[in-house]
Amino acid sequence: MKQPLIGLTCSLNETETRISAYRGYADALLSCGALPVVLPLTDDIPALLERFDGFVLTGGGDIDPRRYGQWQKPCCGAITPARDEMELALARALSERPDKPALGVCRGLQVMNVALGGDLYQDIAAERGAEVMRHRQSQPENCASHEVIVTMSSLLDEVVHAHSIEVNSLHHQAVRRLGAGFEPCGVASDGLIEAAALSGHPFYLGVQWHPERMWEKTDSDRAIFTAFVEACRAGR
Ligand SMILES: [Mn+2]
Question: Is the pTM of this model over 0.85?
Fold first, then answer.
């Protein structure tokens, strides 16, 4: 059986001397029969599309708000312009490639949304205040802290086969206005968008939580990686 080659976008450290990816992505993908590779920061997106069967836009820090038409507020966190540049170009290119599955995790969901023309809350607590619940959990990262209601017949529903799933929550930003064609497929009970998929694309899915920290013990999170790898194997 074909072992899909999966590119993982990298984090960049503060001194911009190291690229890395959280180990859970690699372990989850290996466990599903894929071969994950951490990508460099490059503007040669066509070369990546040529070689890799699918891509994970990984978690990380905040996107420069200028990328979505806002000035940076004090509540926004640290930004990494070089990473924004590469990931936004990749996410945009992937939106036009139905044969290349894309999975966005946390920042990755936000990158997908901004690439499609949407925008973000720079800080949920500062901009939405008391009307939303706590999305930066105090529990350990591999424990669920809130529910996500799954949109019936959405891609997420096809993947997890559930009306509701329990997820961890390690974010301070969130999708505000959705980009073109990006449709919500999971929402928290306070109404915040927790998952979205690009209509017309077989597998362009972003989730606001971190399945790479839960997949070993949570069926719905393991199912996300399994379905993604299956889509990469099929080249759809
Ligand atoms: Mn959340």
Answer: yes
**Cα dihedral value 74, 80, 86, 89, nearest 10:** 10
How many angstroms separate the alpha carbon of residue 1 from the centre of ligand 1? 36
What is the rounded CA–CA span in Å between residue 24 and residue 41?
20
**14 is an active site residue:** no
- Give 216 Cα–ligand 1 centroid separation in angstroms: 20
Cα–chain center distance at 6: 14
Q: Domain ranges in the chain? A: 5-234
Give me the CATH topology for the region 5-234.
Rossmann fold (3.40.50)
Q: Rounded to whole angstroms, how far apart are CA atoms 30 and 38?
A: 13
Q: Residue 62: CB partners within 8 Å, gap ≥ 6?
A: 76, 77, 78, 79, 107, 122, 173
Per residue in 120-148, pLDDT tens? 999 999 999 888 899 999 999 999 999 99
